[in-house]
Design brief:
The chain is α/β, with parallel strands linked by helices. It is built from 17 helices and 23 strands. The protein has helices at 2-21, 56-59, 62-74, 112-127, 140-143, 155-168, 188-197, 203-206, 214-230, 282-285, 297-307, 335-347, 358-362, 389-392, 396-409, 413-417, 465-472, and strands at residues 30-33, 36-39, 45-46, 48-52, 79-85, 102-103, 106-110, 131-137, 174-176, 183-185, 210-212, 237-239, 268-270, 312-314, 352-355, 419-421, 441-446, 450-455, 461-464, 476-482, 489-496, 500-503, 515-521.
Length: 522
């Protein structure tokens, strides 16, 4: 008996010791389950609702971090996407507290003081119920990206740095790639500008040699995995490509870079980006750099589901407040257009969505609002010089994003898990009603019980209610209209299932009149 008590005491001590050393975010960790995500510990379904705040470790102090996290938690965000070695002078410009992420720009010499601040941020995020999707480094430091230099990573130090990050932050989702493609030419930014200056040139001739950095990214991923294993965790990873790509390289999906001998991803990713691909622009004519149409991210989601068995997501859709293609001669993306990207992604089969605001990701502040003049960094991508990220925190779509999560998260777990993109009950889904861009009619279904239709402009649409009846085995369904603008329901009455019926949303006619119809079989 004393032996059994001793064994029990040892096991109890081990459990308590493990719990005592578990990271603050341990209960928030996620894993893939089929096409969906779930909490690793509880198994509860999880819909990724992320905000883009790439520069948080580099730009904010502790009080600003709390202000940011409180705001995002109140708006329902459960993930933030943030990068350890930041895009904007991340290796040479210290953070608020005077610390750089690396000594001498050497990935083998991480600066502990800097990562202690990262520790603080990810732990505070966990306090607010938010999981940090941690980007170990911006892609420019692997292949030049949109900045050309410096390149500081190779296969060897990428592994060691990945292992350091994995062991220090086990259980946090990791995003590699970071706005870069594994097949890339370092002169892409120069070539793009040269064509803008003289569009009579042959586009292909402007692109320099393409380099393949898959081995570097795979090495970093392997280091992340080994570091997490050391702490008893499994790696959750995804890859964030850029947009556009070099034409003669694979399409820019994460799984086209990390696969086979290069390892596996937990979740496939794309950057549908910030351009509507206007054929009247020079960038469209730069055919050596084809890009995605940001208004058609549903095509990207469908394409990823066709090549990848697990969860897929659009990690960067057009930022609220940014100009189309970051071109000031073109309009800025408004809240309605941003909502469309979020709903089209999820209704096409994504496991969640990522929101972004142009001033928030870079955390720009005018000089007058900063604690010290040395903290000032010029705004980029046309953020107005007098516009603070603090104002941008409450842009309309930032708060409206939570209504998509609430629409689906309120469903019983078994209904949520059974959700699939399904337009088979939308009459003419491949014909007259197959609108493109922001007038598309998208649909979700869960078994034979729940059916959802998203109409981007509030256009009327016809449903094959005989199809619904056959699947539901019921004669009636309850209809309701859901507003993506404020998350309110309005009753649509009891619908008899059978035949075809046209549904008219409560309002229509513009990009601001998007609606969701919910049918629940009775």
């Amino acid at each position: 008996m004393r032996y059994l008590l001793s064994v029990f005491a040892v096991l109890s001590w081990a459990v308590l010791r493990t719990r005592a050393h578990a990271p603050a975010w341990a209960n928030l960790a996620i894993q893939a389950n089929g096409r969906l995500l779930e909490r690793t510990v509880s198994g509860e379904p999880f819909l990724w609702q992320a905000d883009t705040v790439w520069e948080i470790f580099q730009r904010l102090n502790k009080s600003d971090v709390d202000f940011y996290l409180q705001n995002r938690a109140a708006k329902g965000y459960n993930v933030i996407q943030a990068v350890a070695i930041a895009e904007i002078d991340g290796t040479t410009r210290p953070n608020f507290y005077g610390d750089l992420p690396l000594q001498d720009q050497d990935p083998l010499l991480p600066n502990d003081a800097y990562y202690k601040y990262v520790d603080y941020v990810v732990e505070r995020a966990a306090h607010f119920g938010i999981l940090v999707a941690l980007v170990p480094t911006w892609g420019r430091y692997v292949n030049g990206g949109w900045h050309q230099a410096p390149i500081i990573f190779n296969e060897s130090n990428a592994y060691e740095y990945g292992r350091f990050i994995g062991a220090r932050y086990p259980g946090l989702p990791k995003i590699i790639g970071a706005d870069s493609n594994a097949f890339w030419s370092i002169n892409v930014p120069v070539a793009q500008q040269e064509f803008r200056d003289d569009p009579t040139q042959d586009p292909d001739s402007l692109i320099g040699p393409v380099i393949d950095t898959r081995a570097v990214w795979a090495s970093m991923r392997n280091g992340l995995e080994d570091g997490e294993h050391e702490k008893g965790f499994e790696l959750f990873s995804t890859y964030h490509p850029t947009n556009p790509r070099v034409r003669w390289t694979p399409e820019a999906y994460g799984s086209n870079y990390i696969n086979g001998s290069y390892g596996t991803l937990s979740m496939n990713g794309v950057q549908s980006g910030h351009s509507s691909q206007d054929p009247n622009t020079l960038d469209f004519e730069m055919t050596a750099l084809p890009g995605w149409d940001a208004t058609k991210n549903y095509e990207n989601i469908a394409a990823m589901r066709a090549i990848f068995d697990g969860p897929v997501i659009d990690l960067e859709n057009h930022y609220e407040g940014a100009n189309d293609n970051f071109n000031t001669s073109r309009p800025a993306w408004n809240a309605s257009q941003v909502r469309h990207g979020l709903y089209y992604g999820v209704f096409s089969g994504a496991c969640g969505f990522t929101y972004g605001a142009n001033a928030v990701w870079q955390l720009y502040d005018p000089l007058a609002l900063l604690a010290r003049p040395d903290l000032y960094i010029d705004p980029i991508l046309n953020v107005p010089a007098d516009f603070s990220w603090r104002e941008a925190m409450d842009m309309p779509a930032a708060g409206q994003a939570q209504h998509l999560t609430r629409l689906l998260a309120r469903l019983p777990a078994d209904v949520f898990r059974a959700l699939e993109p399904d337009r088979s009950f939308v009459s003419g889904a491949n014909g007259a009603l197959d609108w493109e861009s922001d007038r598309r009619t998208a649909a979700l279904a869960s078994g034979g019980t729940h059916f959802f239709v998203y109409a981007g402009h509030g256009d009327s649409f016809a449903l094959d209610l005989g199809n619904v009846a056959g699947r539901a085995g019921k004669r009636f369904a309850r209809a309701a209209w859901y507003s993506p603008r404020d998350g309110s329901f309005s009753e649509g009455g009891i619908v008899e299932l059978g035949g075809e019926r046209t549904f008219e949303p409560p309002s229509s006619g513009s990009v601001d009149d998007d609606w969701v119809l919910e049918l629940v079989a009775l």
